[in-house]
């Protein structure tokens, strides 16, 4: 046994996906602006906090994603945390071809990055570092600005669990 190397997995990708699906995650739309001024947005559930000082977050994107070159090279992006009543936005940015921003209200941040109106919270990030790991790239963002849309603070977040979308239920 080599302590510097992992053992081969004793499961297939379907079993791995099923086990991962038992961990509920929030749903976000990551947005940025291309050099030509066009707006880019993708749905992602791979979002986590990393550090409070400095304020860092992370998310990941498949290496084969069409938007990968823009996200890899851009200096800024925004993470928009979706509410349970924003499933339509989640699906739009996950599957729609063409202009995903058509008819979607947003404001531009200080860096010119779109922040979706009505998202529960948002994080405007400097694209600090990227790590190629397996079939994804892990992006670490240094948060320059963030906020909570106060008019939607009482709404529940959109959750992805076991292959489907849900909203949380209070246990007490």
UniProtKB/TrEMBL annotation:
Which SUPFAM superfamilies does the record match to this protein? FMN-binding split barrel
Keyword annotations for this protein, in alphabetical order, are: Oxidoreductase
* Keyword flag Lipoprotein: no
Chain ranges of the Flavin reductase like domain: 20-167
Q: Which Pfam families match?
A: Flavin_Reduct
Gene3D superfamilies according to UniProt = Electron Transport, Fmn-binding Protein, Chain A
> Which molecular-function annotations from GO does this UniProt entry contain?
FMN binding; riboflavin reductase (NADPH) activity
Q: Which InterPro entries match?
A: Flavin_Rdtase-like_dom (IPR002563), NADH-dep_flavin_reductase (IPR050268), Split_barrel_FMN-bd (IPR012349)
Could you list the residue ranges that cross the membrane? none
Q: Which family is this protein grouped under?
A: Belongs to the non-flavoprotein flavin reductase family.
User: Would you tell me the protein name for this molecule?
Assistant: Flavin reductase
Q: Which organism is it from?
A: Pandoraea oxalativorans
């Amino acid at each position: 046994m080599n302590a510097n190397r992992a053992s081969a997995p004793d499961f297939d990708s379907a079993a791995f996906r099923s086990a991962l699906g038992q961990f509920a995650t929030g749903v976000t739309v990551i947005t940025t602006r291309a050099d030509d001024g066009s707006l880019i947005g993708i749905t992602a559930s791979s979002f986590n906090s990393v550090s409070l000082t400095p304020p860092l977050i992370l998310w990941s994107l498949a290496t084969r994603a069409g938007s990968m070159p823009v996200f890899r090279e851009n200096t800024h992006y925004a993470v928009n945390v979706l509410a349970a009543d924003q499933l339509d936005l989640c699906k739009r940015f996950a599957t729609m071809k063409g202009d995903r921003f058509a008819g979607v209200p947003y404001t531009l941040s200080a860096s010119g990055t779109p922040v979706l109106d009505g998202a529960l919270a948002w994080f405007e990030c400097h694209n600090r570092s990227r790590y190629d790991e397996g079939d994804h790239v892990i992006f670490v963002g240094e948060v320059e600005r963030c906020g909570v849309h106060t008019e939607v603070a009482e709404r529940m977040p959109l959750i992805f669990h076991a292959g489907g979308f849900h909203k949380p239920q209070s246990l007490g």
